[in-house]
Amino acid sequence: GAVVSQHPSWVICKSGTSVKIECRSLDFQATTMFWYRQFPKQSLMLMATSNEGSKATYEQGVEKDKFLINHASLTLSTLTVTSAHPEDSSFYICSASGPGPGAKQYFGPGTRLTVT
Amino acid sequence: SQELEQSPQSLIVQEGKNLTINCTSSKTLYGLYWYKQKYGEGLIFLMMLQKGGEEKSHEKITAKLDEKKQQSSLHITASQPSHAGIYLCGAANTDKLIFGTGTRLQVFP
Hints:
The complex is a heterodimer.
Chain A: E1 4-7, E2 10-13, E3 19-25, E4 32-38, E5 44-51, E6 57-58, E7 67-73, E8 76-81, E9 90-97, E10 105-107, E11 111-115
Chain B: E1 4-7, E2 10-14, E3 19-25, E4 32-37, E5 43-49, E6 55-58, E7 61-65, E8 71-76, E9 85-93, E10 96-99, E11 103-108
């Protein structure tokens, strides 16, 4: 099956700094990428949908100025958590899908962010 | 907006026992996915169901979608410690996936 990677797998940063997380589709062109966050013992919550070359669509309640998403190519999307705070500590997972409605999503292994 | 409720929230079973996890949607399901997640890791795709009454099996896991397409069940036969993890159902909503509340499964020897 298709492979999606995330980097880094875990990161610790100080409050007030920014952190960038990369999501790459390794063997297919991902026209759409999705970013989720997951708190301990909770399900995945969709944060935003990004299409290559266009602005991301954010879910209600997600601050677009805080969570900057860039989908500059068909194999790479980045999520930047700006001015991170301890409450941003979470597990961030991306997924990627190819073209067409109902295309299957392939999930990355996730990135654990801890803000101290 | 569509919501998916899973039950039970958590499950502890003895190895060898059968178990069932349910996923109920507030709206008609046009595509229902089942995933497994080990804590702190990504999602492993298990199965996808689309048609009312559809049933799929893979190894010891069977998933069904009811005729009305609002409820799905995941059944594990003769559970093993390797089945432990978080099970998530996901509903296809245009190009998005909306996830259920999750079921944490523990299997003890």
